[in-house]
Amino acid sequence: MEDRSAKYRAFYAQLICAAAKAADSRLEQAFRTVRREPFVGPGPWSISFGGHPYVVTPDDDPAFIYQNALLALDSARSLNIGMPGAHAFGSAAVPSGKVRP
Questions:
Q1: pTM of the model
Q2: Structural domain includes residue 101
Q3: Per-residue confidence band for 55, with pLDDT thresholds at 50, 70 and 90
């Protein structure tokens, strides 16, 4: 499954950084490198797009967790791993080193 996960992460990293207009290749490399699986535990997973009900994935295919979506750590308490696009946007820096407005 690792090969598929790497393929998903590569596309996910490009998509998240493009949506966040993040041009720093280091940020894309971070999204490409860091696996989400260890943080969300075994699937199936509960996923939400913020303010919407959770949807449970049909199985544990990692393609489901490489989305710009909230992944529940504890859906009963609404504890989530945040939306990757929001993290990419907030992490993208302008040349001065300050976070862009």
A1: 0.77
A2: no
A3: very high
**Residue 22 identity (one-letter amino acid):** A
In a domain, 83, yes or no: yes
Give, for 8, the enclosing helix (H) or strand (E): helix 2-19
- Cα angle, residue 99 at apex, residues 83 and 85 outer, rounded to 5°: 15
The answer to whether residue 20 sits within a structural domain is yes
Q: Which domain holds residue 54?
A: 2-91
Nearest alpha-carbon partner for 57 in 71, 67, 46, 48:
46
Residue 55 tokens, joined: 């949807």
Task: Flag whether pLDDT at 50 surpasses 90.
Answer: no
* Among 67, 65, 77, 13, residue whose Cα is nearest residue 40: 65
Percentages of the chain per state (helix, strand, coil), in multiples of 5: 45, 15, 40
- The span from the first CA to the last CA of the chain, in angstroms, equals 39
Query: How many domains, in total, are found in the chain?
Result: 1
In a domain, 97, yes or no: no
